[in-house]
Queue: 3 jobs
Job 1
Amino acid sequence: MSRKVIGGPTGTGRDPNAKLLRVVDIKTHFRTEKGTVRAVDGVSFTLDRGRTLGVVGESGSGKTILSRSIMGLLPKRNVVRQGHVYYEGTDIIGLPDEEMRHVWGSEMAMVFQDPMTSLNPVKKIGKQITESLFLHLHMDKQDAHDTALALLSSVGIPEPEQRLNEYPHQLSGGMRQRVVIAIALACGPKLLFADEPTTALDVTVQAQILNLLQQLQRERHMAMILVTHDLGVVAGRTDEIAVMYAGKVVEHAPTPVLFSNMKMPYTEALLSSIPKLDYPSHTRLEVIPGRPPDLINPPRGCRFAPRCKYAQERCLNEEPPLIAAETPGHMFRCWFPVGSPEGEEALSRNLAAGASASGVPVTDVPMPASLAGRS
Amino acid sequence: MPEPSHRGAPVDAPGISSRPEIDAPAGGAREMLELTQLADREVEELQALHTLDPDQVPADAVKKRLGPLFWFAAGWFLLIVVLALAAPLMERAGFLPDPTKAVKCANPPCSKLGILKQGYLLGTDNLSRDIFSRIVWGARVSLLVGFSSIFFGLVLGGAIGVIAGFFKGKLETVLMALTDMFLAFPAILLALAIITFASTSNPGEEPRLSRQVAVILALTIVSVPPIARLVRASTLVFAQREFVLAARTLGASNLRIMVKEIVPNVLPPIFAFGIIGVAIAITAEGALAFLGLSLQPPNPTWGGMINDGQKFYLDAPHMVLVPCAVLFLTVLSLNLAGDRLREYFDIKESVL
Ligand SMILES: Nc1ncnc2c1ncn2[C@@H]1O[C@H](COP(=O)(O)OP(=O)(O)O)[C@@H](O)[C@H]1O
Ligand code: SF4
Ligand SMILES: [Mg+2]
């Protein structure tokens, strides 16, 4: 394993007793001609070794930029980045690429959405797997070959010996994503990002790939950040869930707590847009009326107010802070939380008026009736 | 792009049919024009390539037929290559007379012209030199100039293109501005200037470079801008593909990404383009030789032979026809092969 100390000349090295990952108030803003896009706007969380975090939100909510900000993979130009990313106690934000290279692959790795584009079409599978083995682990040819074989077997690829000499286009989509996973795991990272790892795949293989990721994550005691737009994907597979909306985490809770006691109207809306929780579905989440807000000029108060059934005057003017719920580890941003007396009152007021304070028509509420009955 | 392969239009000794005596400057001007047009067409070609479907990927496992025309072209080209390579051997074995000297013939004077006279395959020229031998030795010049100038052009232009397309920003701006500056010059004028500079010398001194090297240098420099532009366009496409980011997340350095991820993707289509480039370079060498700017007489070059022959086209049409035909067929075969290879590599994402 590459045991280079990150942090370079000024760094203090890593502390194996520290939390694996501690993200403190990171902001990633893009300067564009139209204005500053606040893609990630103050996100904090911690992740222990071997734990899994689901990051859920509609498309455009900043999930991909969040994971790339943590990994330090952002474009260099016209990006403003703030905050801290402590990896094993060392702040890695803004480290030059030369130093991040010792982190990438051997400490953190990423599985991308589309195995069609994340594999090099003109290179054999074997070569694509062994390259990082040579680079980080300085293996010789024979060791690298054996390791690649073992990796391909561990991700459930039949006849791995033969696959080593094949090109990506000779494999099916599901098999390709298994190869991508094998490549990501080659150097034994402690933290794996999976950014919509099944969105581009056939429905029939989605569950297989998710189960494989879960199995490997457990076997290797690896931390995983599973990014998806689908609450159904993370339901049974993560320890915690962070719900993102317009660049912010709007609700963060241990997975069972989130499903049994959600506070955010947005989470509720996300959930009710899923037909069933029994199997992963990839219904796009456009069922929520309206569109995600403009990240250049976000709404002044609560960013969800223009689409929220619960919205009151206060929501339009004051941004709700992230506050702790009664259960430890559960946080949310809302003035009128779901299930609270304030929330019930707000909803019935809007129902009586036929519209929310922001003008969203509110008629008979299709509440996710009994959550217990669904899961 | 089903386009007929006419880029390497034969150098058919301009003016020869209309005017028996053409003065060199006029002929030169026409040549220049033709070459400039050639270069322009090439740029159009490049711009078309520029807008090619970015997702085209070569995949060697997908079998596409190359077709009989390709094999015919490849056959002719192979013949020329074999003859050129075997020239010294054939000379030693006595099959090939010295191309610079008059052949001894049974029936002097040997200046009598005609096909298959004196038992030589393609006859002799006005100085009684064996035309077949001159063609074979001339092929060495054409091939050497064509391949080496495009090879160096690919290395240099490829490096510029990959670096510009990969790093973008200021570096790209500077590199591409330089390239565009070269492109703005008519290629032939640039080549002329380079050759003149390289091969002139103060009285009593050796020329800076031999003619051969000067011609290769000139054609290399002329070929760099279009290749750089093409490679850059191709690199831009691949650099934003996810596998490049994936390689980065695995700890690959920029150099490694360029060499191991981008170049293998950029290379196959460029290889096909390079073959067409060789055809163009051979044509250009012919034109330069025609203008007397390539190897100096009595060394044989195809362009020089055409130039010599045009003065005798009435008495001895074969003197001009033979080198014209050989040049035409060679250039045509390279174009055909290059076009077919490009289609061959042009495999859409759908087959993946
Ligand atoms: N390079 C960029 N320049 C400007 N805006 C960007 C850039 N990259 C992403 N964005 C914007 O950031 C927001 C979040 O994007 P992303 O993280 O990809 O969303 P998600 O992954 O949740 O679908 C989007 O609105 C997107 O348009
Ligand atoms: S109730 Fe108000 S604060 Fe809560 S999500 Fe809706 S708009 Fe935002
Ligand atoms: Mg995304």
Job 2
Amino acid sequence: MSVAVPSQPDERLVKPRLWDRLVVRPEIGALLGALLVFVFFSVVTGEFLSPLGVANWLDDASTLGIMAVAVALLMIGGEFDLSAGVMTASTALVTAIFATQVGLNVWFALILSLVFALAVGALNGWLVMRTGLPSFIVTLGTFLALQGLNLGVTRLVTGTVQVSGMRSTDGYESAGMLFASTVNIGGTDFQVSILWWIVFAAVAAWVLVRTRFGNWTFAVGGSSLSSRAVGVPVVRTKIMLFMTTAFAAWIVGSINILRNASVQANQGIGLEFQYIIAAVIGGCLLTGGFGSAVGAAIGALIFGMARQGIVYAQWNSDWFMLFLGIMLLAAVLVNNTFRRRAERVRR
Amino acid sequence: MTAEASTALLQMTGIVKTFPGVRALDGVDLTVRAGEVHCLLGQNGAGKSTLIKVLAGAHQPDEGEIRWQGEKTALSTPVAALRMGVATMYQELDLIPGLSVADNIFLGHERARWGFTKDRQARRQATALLKRLGHPEIPPDREVGDLSAAGQQLVSMARALAHDAKLIVMDEPTAALAADEVTNLFRVVADLTAEGVAVVYISHRLEEIREIGHRVTVLKDGRTVARDLGADTPTSELVALMSGKRVETVYPNREESTVDSSREILKVEKLGRDDEFADVNFTVHAGEILGIAGLVGAGRSEILETIFGARKADEGTVYVNGKKLKNGDVRSAVDAGVGLAPEERKSQALLMDMSVAQNVTLASMRSYSSFGFTDRAKELRDSRAKLEDLDLRPADPRRNVSTLSGGNQQKAVVARWLVHGCRVLLLDEPTRGVDVGARAELYRLIRELAADGVALVLVSSEMPEVLGLADRVLVLRDGRVIHEAPADELTEADVLDMVMEGSAA
Ligand SMILES: Nc1ncnc2c1ncn2[C@@H]1O[C@H](COP(=O)(O)OP(=O)(O)OP(=O)(O)O)[C@@H](O)[C@H]1O
Ligand SMILES: [Mg+2]
């Protein structure tokens, strides 16, 4: 076998054109969708583009966005967390109960609540890895358990299904500065949660592309067997991802409790699917190994714009779900088409 | 023996590994010295991949002892094996499609400080590694899912090289490679051994073992049947050791042509797909085997998939028995009696979590079901017969396909179309990963099909296979047919020249 090595570069392996590389970015569908929704509501309603309008839909998108970004990381890692929605209520309840019923300083209550959240996240991850069951099932279990705990413990402690009275607790003001204050820009108050959303998305995007942990996240979602074989700590990575989701739920829970000063025990139920939807609009695949944190943040932005836009347009909010369904299908179709096209080009 | 023990880099003795229902390894010994290419031979299912997974820390042995540089060790995890200095290119475990080339190469041993990856350094080193493999043009920041099969194989090679290992295990690394890439790989292997690195090399192509091997260990049914043979051991002896029987000639000789040139079965007219191939015309008669030669990536698989309807043609038509097939419609092709055994068995052909029997009868479900109920007994009976023909081991049709060895999975794909009974059979690399004995059997079956009047199209990277089996050969380069001739008028060298240079001799 004396075959010469071909001297010219192998055309099978050379770079595709810039455009083809752009359109396979996972967030392309979400980006187009966000533009579309933005232009649409800017045209049909006047208030949508007013400073107050913008502040409103950004605020709506922010808490959803923080969760969607974390859920996107988890989905890239190949797992789901159905308990994420209830967790936002659980963390708020833990903080509120320790602050109002036990009388702890709010800061201290927040730390206990964080420990609780991380423990639940770790438990989720550990159960999934230990049992080998799909995370869909395992976290459905924690979802139900937390839902029960939220109601049961709240009623036991307060005799009602809500915890209130945060305003009179120690540290409420200072903690509120961090989680629930507003920033005045040009005469309009913007919620600080918007800032947290942007920071969280930026950090997550950074972690995904620039750190070892980010590589591992893609790897365990792409193929956990192959990852294990090359030495990726699969169990640790997945547990960390579940803990990240729980951490995000703690941020969102803290924002809620410090802003409203009270929390309902049945809050958060059903939100878990909104997080997953936002992540999928943002380009995450349900099968794992592919997706983007920025995409998920944009997915949440679409949610916020649509939800508030429908209010400004004075439509019945019943239409929101229809709108959402169409958005979801359209974004996924766009992502899919572009990926296919790119695949064809490269073959 | 003691002298060898002291110089041996790796010594595995009495390794036993059982899976539910199978004793995959039943007392295997393997001794590897530094700086040698040690070939591991054995039939499909002999336990080669299982042995190297034990060595890589991916499987825990039930019994046996592993010594590394004379010291007894336990390899409890893949990381332990990597730390010790064993890097592995697996036969089946793939790369991570969503990660870039550089990220894949350094996955698990990232160039990082405080958890932050040093991307520029990783990219530079990745390019250096790929350059060593003869492919500096593969962009290190490209997603691996975007690369061709050959490109991915190169990346997984680069990954093994990146580890600075003392022992590199290669499980059928050339199965998906074209001739020029094989040459590159061999050059790299020679460099490595010159530096004192040991290589454990698994392949079913005996000529490769002659070219780069130093010593040979033969496995059969999970046992070591011969160790430390020279690489110049005669083929007949190796085959006899592997299979326990003699295989005289690999290609059955053509006593008389089975081609019935009065009956055109498959006719392809001006077939083309943008950016893939163009203006492909050919006819296959009843009883004829048409071989397609060309490099990996020349468009061979694409043509077969387009005929089968798995890809939509942009131009041209396919006729079977004079009837036009619906463009891009697999159902219409299967109804017309066309079968395709694709190249990527795992993703394109097999339902990994179903039994062998169910996989084998998948295409012919109609003949196994009445009123929506499946006749499981008949399904088992028929598939068992074909499995025995192909020597698939273990010949138990109720096993899960995912537990079969690589070569045996390939046989299951071929068996499917044998059971189905087609008029046109498209075979894409039918012997990839199939051992020598079974290969001869497969060739005989292909000939028999032709004798029964089936029209066959055979794509293979192995020139002798195309020339030895086909009646007529098309030579393909960059998606275009550059030459067509009866197989006995072509030599291997001619065809290689044509596919490399494009100069039709
Ligand atoms: N995970 C598993 N579960 C059950 N059986 C298995 C498993 N892995 C391998 N086996 C069985 O162990 C035996 C040895 O398989 P192995 O993959 O080591 O063969 P091989 O020598 O590599 O063959 P090939 O040349 O086809 O790759 C086979 O009978 C196979 O079916
Ligand atoms: Mg194998």
Job 3
Amino acid sequence: MTIEINGTPHDRTPLPGQCLRTYLREEGCFGVKKGCDAGDCGACTVHVDGTPVHSCVYPAFRAQGRSVTTIEGLAGPSGLHPVQQSFLDAQGFQCGFCTAGMIMTTAALTDDQRADLPRSLKGNLCRCTGYRAITDAVNGGSPAVCPAEGAAVGSSLGAPAGPQVVTGTARYTFDLDVPGLLHLKVLRSPHAHARILSVDTSAALAVPGVEAVLTHKDAPDRLFSTAQHENEAEDPYDTRVLDEVVRFIGQRVAAVVATSEAAAEEGVRRLRVEYEVLPAVIDPALAMLPGAPLVHGDKGIAEGIVRANANVVGELHAGIGDVEAGFAAADAVYEATFRTPRVQHAALETHGAVGWLDDDDRLVIRSSTQTPFLTRRAVSRLFGLSRDRVRVVAGRVGGGFGGKQEMLVEDLVAMAVLRTGRPVKWEYTRSEQFTAATTRHPFVITVKAGARVDGLITALQLTVLVNTGAYGNHGASVMHHGCHETVAVYRCANIRTDAHTVYTNTVPAGAFRGYGLGQVTFAVEQVLDELARMIGMDPVTFREINVVRPGDDLTAPGAHVPDLGIASYGLDQCLDRIRAASSTTDTAPDGWLVGEGMAIAMIAAGPPGGHFADATVTLLPDGRYELAVGTAEFGNGSTTVHVQIVADELRTTPDRVLVRQSDTDVVGHDTGAFASTGVVVAGEAVLRACRALRARILAAAERGPSEIRCLTADSVAGISLATIAPLSGSGHFDGTPRSVAFNAQWFRVAVDPDTGELRILRSVHSADAGTVMNPLQLRGQIEGGVAQAIGATLAEHVDVDEAGQVTTTTFRQYHLPTVADVPETEVHFARTTDAIGPLGAKSMSESPYNPVSPALGNALRDALGFRLTDLPYTADRIWQAIQDHRP
Amino acid sequence: MQVPAPFEYERATSVDQAIGLLERLGSSARLVAGGHSLLPMMKLRLANFEYLIDINDLHAELGYIRLSDDEVRIGAMTRHRELLESDVLASVLPIFSDAERVIADPIVRNRGTLGGSLCQADPSEDLSAVCTTLDASCVIRGPGGAERVVTMEEFHVGPYETAVADNEILTEIRIPRKSFRTGSAYAKVERRAGDWAVVSAGAAVWLDEGRIVDARVGLAAVGPNTTGIPEISAALRGHEPGESLYELAGAIAARSCDPVTDTRGSADYKRHLADELTRRTLRKAVERARS
Ligand SMILES: Cc1cc2nc3c(=O)[nH]c(=O)nc-3n(C[C@H](O)[C@H](O)[C@H](O)COP(=O)(O)OP(=O)(O)OC[C@H]3O[C@@H](n4cnc5c(N)ncnc54)[C@H](O)[C@@H]3O)c2cc1C
Ligand code: FES
Ligand code: FES
């Protein structure tokens, strides 16, 4: 019996146990995605005889004799299906990994269902957009923008990859057919801390199809950090590809490489490992106590660990002014301790990579990464290969949020390729994503602050404990960053910070949108809110009195790279918007408690210590331009902005700009798509490349660099561009100096005292991003950041039990916000032009996240009359707190 | 690990043929209806079977909603979507559409079945709570066409365990109708829309001349099985409905349930919700019975 796929009969019999999703992908339908493999996310939605189904929980056999439509088959002969067109028009996607499923579900909705999207679209999860753009798409977006020559910057140009995203033809990490591919699976540690005494591989090797088993004996005897930074000294070298000692439940013990996933898994099940179980420390508060088990007792300063004998990876003890005198001068002092939990990035595309040797025997790794160039550097060093013998490429990346600023898979894939000489693929399952990728760093933050009745903050004191888990990747940097902009945004003469990042035998934390700012902002902004209440001042005025102003130095305790300054200032405009929000009205259900709250946040555009980008723009013989740039695209939209810059600088239209990107072969270097640098660093390199090329084009027509007017899309001073092509220009930017961007968030909430349910009645966000390069996209970034933070504030938590085991391992247990859970957020932009950023732009990718949870905390405080200090604010906790505060 | 163990696949052509297959293959085989509970468990290797017998083609035989004077009969293969969209159910047993509106999403509802829901016997499963509330009985068919009828209490042996033997199929649910004014309602507190219940409650009341002749409350997610609470029925019978009665019922619900603290909430919170939702659904059910 055959299965008809998009009108064509397919005869191949499904494998026993195969689900329709893998069958369809094996038949070449790469548009059918895997987000969870358990019926929870909708990314795999296809139609069977016209009815949408989750193909991951649909036995492939059941499709025999039926007709299956995937995203690839949705468009008719006359062009895109109307739903595809409206997703394209409304730009109802960012990374696009959820888009095929969204479109397939939407295409089958009845009118009644369309009218009730919160209920009818809730089976499709999106981690990027915050759903507003998707809702607009479902309701029929307004047509796409086609800017004229020289008018691209500032327009809402759609993402260049849009047409591929909505047709399922965009190629993500695993969307390629590699003949002879082997599959890799790992055995993970069942112990929080143990020494591996022996690994018996014989039974695994006897499984038909198993080609190799890799253990710590095969791994290079070199240490590295999974964290990827330009400046390698930022992270301790405490990790091995496969280690003899395992330090958290879920750490790699051994890998099995086989001709099929099933054989590799069977091989893993047959490995016999003998462990010597070691004492473990799970609670970060206990990690620094004398006698606590040491996580990396065998290492020290040489590996970049400050005090390995006390589990301290990094610490900061510094002050400015005199806090005691500051508190003495205060009329009101408030102190509280706040806790933020582990949260998972939950990008819909899991971690993974495919590696092979190319025709020149070069090692090629195709990975879901934000840092191809740094990963190349790390892989080449681990395996003693020169850099030109390694190529790292990223396809389209299905969401990152910082989680992919990490080398979690490429090292092992490289090792397997080098060992077998064959192509090897390793794709994390959703459960591995929870147990063995990284999480947000859990923080405990105590803030004490004092203010005078006239509103002046007299002292600020921070005591911070960061749990980095079993490895120190990003641990110290997240702590330093978290303790910087959060206080530097205030003019305060007396500040004291004492912070530690400690190891525990738990799943490692890593980079995550906001990079520590979200956690510390959560505490600082709530303490300031309480102070404002104590002195009887409204929170906006209180901020206005204390925030930094143009011309101020940005100061915070500790040594800081001095290249950060205020190169444009829109925080005052942001605060004006927040004040205006407060004068609106909303109705809440009877008996519910209503409250309002706000918070602000500042973020540096780029990391301290350099972030490098190269770009090359080439005029092609057909008059089009090709841009080569290193930074990866995972839905953050930097590619769109780069195209806009090229189009305007070279006076052409965006459709005549081709982009090659995120491939170590296309440019010299790029530090990576992290630290909010896609526009301000890579974009600046693109701008410089454009200007270099423009000068050469004008010179070719014997015109000076200022005679830009003689350049058109086809000619320069009347000479056809074709006659002077090819011609290239290159640009480089080293990421310094750096400016700052600002965000402010306001909420009105209502709480049902009988169930603890919290409902957001109104959400307003204002942002100072400098020149708005692309309003639609910027709005999308902000909405997505706000939505992600709402999830982390109200619902999400990765739980780790006393033994150190992660217990939230599927989307059924870990709650991503659905369309029903995210309110629409009003987004306002300040009008500013930055003196540093390209064409006046600043960054706006991480920062919308940061003021959200304290603003919700403050609104909840306003509604309840008391403050909740521990995230997340789930209904049961709110209800419990109400009970505990009953007189 | 998300590759399920390899399994053989058979499509059932009739109920008795499926029972024949089950008898031959024994405990190595499992029926698959919608597959929305079974296949994720197999992928996570929480369950392994060598044979899957797909009963979707039995929809013609087992997918129905039949109303008679003294009962409503619903076939085990009736899908969530059909329960949601049925006008008959909406008019006589609105508790079904209340519940279906908050179960999963349209795609899951397109395939998931009443039988699969009940047989999965997940303690937070909504339709089991509905059937418990309605005092439903379950028709189980075995080899040689033998049929037995069990109550919901007998049906649910424990979490994920039912009275259905390896060689049997659940074919039908029967819900008694009484000749009184009747109303029913369902409510659920979920962590997010379409999620499994933190706690949910169903209520049904039968009124005669303004007094409660009978009332039933069923709770999900507050104990090993979806629970019916006879003490509530006893306390309400013969009384005129009103706030103080709902409060009493709520208090009994809170006292009688047995929740555990987990990621969905603390035991105290769930106990409180059992109280709150019992009151809310009884109030609604009475309102409907009166209108
Ligand atoms: C994302 C998601 C969200 C969900 N949310 C909810 C929710 O909020 N509330 C809720 O109640 N449910 C929820 N569900 C579960 C959903 O209702 C399932 O469809 C249902 O639990 C199982 O029905 P099924 O037909 O898919 O059963 P299957 O998965 O096919 O079968 C389940 C079990 O029942 C057995 N079985 C099935 N039919 C019979 C029969 N006739 N006789 C004997 N044994 C049988 C099978 O062998 C299997 O062991 C959710 C599911 C998903 C995927
Ligand atoms: S991959 Fe199928 S629902 Fe998530
Ligand atoms: S665009 Fe929806 S998950 Fe990325």
